[in-house]
């Protein structure tokens, strides 16, 4: 019997991390542990080992912690993306075989979106390029394009207020785009790590749903049994207003810009039109839009 794959998760206390930890924890072929900064207030399941490291990611400490690990899964927040470089350097020195960067979300290779939102895109692209430069040192990587985290993005920035039953629709709301639930992302990462011969040194494109805002509105009206109020916004006007806010240092424009990048053609939200889906490769389940949205409305 082969020994379990030893995986360490970084950023396990965020929006996505717990779902990834849970997927690995449920598989007997994996042995999951967590890397956390000393200052972190995050709490984790008591049965999972937690390795604490200095806030400055001291390399000597990191190498000691990472030695013996097969893979690192990183889900640290966008504003801390640069902290992955010392992790990557330590991973090479520790002999770690695989690194999954905190790339989850939109396709950061889309130049039009990167021009609008450089603070979200440039740093992530830079990390993948840095990983490519380490392939010769024996460190492989896999980056995931998932679209928005569907179960939190619907009411966060995609335009649906569950409590008020109000929808904000861009233009006609008929453009389709991809999004993935966090539990499915967790499963995808775990299955990819257990199939490294087929998933290394590439971007993997996954989705739970390929939908439009109109599709979501129709489903929400079905599962709530109610007609929703709808406000239609001109997409270009919404983009202009959001960029104006950001130019003044007002970050309240970010949700509207995220909605624009997701829902408007040409900004990478519809990546399955040009990329091969990894859903089958990673044995991902078919999901029901109605069931997921019904669950979200119950939790509001």
TrEMBL record:
Gene3D superfamilies hit by this protein: NAD(P)-binding Rossmann-like Domain, UDP-galactose 4-epimerase, domain 1
Single GO MF annotation: oxidoreductase activity
CDD domains named among the record's database cross-references: PCBER_SDR_a
Residue span(s) of domain NmrA-like: 6-228
Coiled-coil region: none
Domain of life: Eukaryota
Cited PANTHER family: NMRA-LIKE DOMAIN-CONTAINING PROTEIN-RELATED, NMRA-LIKE FAMILY PROTEIN
Protein name: NmrA-like domain-containing protein
Keywords: NADP, Oxidoreductase
InterPro entries: NAD(P)-bd_dom_sf (IPR036291), NmrA-like (IPR008030), NmrA/Isoflavone_reductase-like (IPR051609), PCBER-like (IPR045312)
């Amino acid at each position: 019997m082969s020994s379990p794959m030893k995986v360490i998760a970084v950023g396990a206390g965020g929006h996505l991390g717990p779902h990834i930890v849970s997927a690995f924890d449920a598989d007997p072929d994996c042995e999951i542990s967590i890397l956390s900064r000393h200052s972190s207030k995050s709490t984790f399941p008591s049965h999972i080992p937690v390795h604490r490291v200095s806030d400055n990611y001291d390399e000597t400490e990191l190498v000691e912690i990472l030695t013996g690990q097969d893979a690192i899964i990183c889900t640290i927040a966008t504003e801390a993306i640069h902290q992955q470089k010392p992790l990557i350097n330590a991973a090479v020195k520790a002999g770690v075989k695989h690194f999954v960067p905190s790339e989850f979300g939109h396709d950061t290779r889309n130049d039009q979106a990167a021009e609008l939102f450089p603070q979200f895109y440039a740093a992530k692209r830079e990390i993948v390029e840095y990983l490519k430069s380490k392939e010769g040192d024996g460190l492989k990587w896999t980056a995931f394009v998932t679209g928005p985290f569907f179960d939190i993005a619907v009411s966060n920035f995609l335009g649906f207020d569950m409590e008020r039953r109000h929808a904000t629709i861009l233009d006609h709301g008929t453009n389709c785009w991809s999004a993935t639930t966090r539990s499915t992302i967790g499963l995808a990462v775990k299955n990819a790590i257990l199939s490294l011969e087929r998933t290394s040194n590439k971007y993997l494109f996954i989705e739970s749903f390929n939908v439009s805002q109109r599709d979501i509105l129709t489903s929400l009206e079905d599962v709530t049994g109610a007609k929703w109020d709808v406000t239609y916004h001109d997409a270009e006007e919404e983009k202009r207003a959001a960029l104006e806010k950001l130019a003044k240092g007002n970050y309240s424009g970010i949700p509207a810009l995220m909605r624009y990048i997701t829902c408007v053609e040409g900004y990478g939200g519809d990546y399955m039109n040009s990329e091969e889906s990894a859903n089958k490769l990673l044995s991902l389940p078919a999901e029901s839009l109605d069931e997921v949205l019904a669950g979200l409305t119950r939790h509001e």
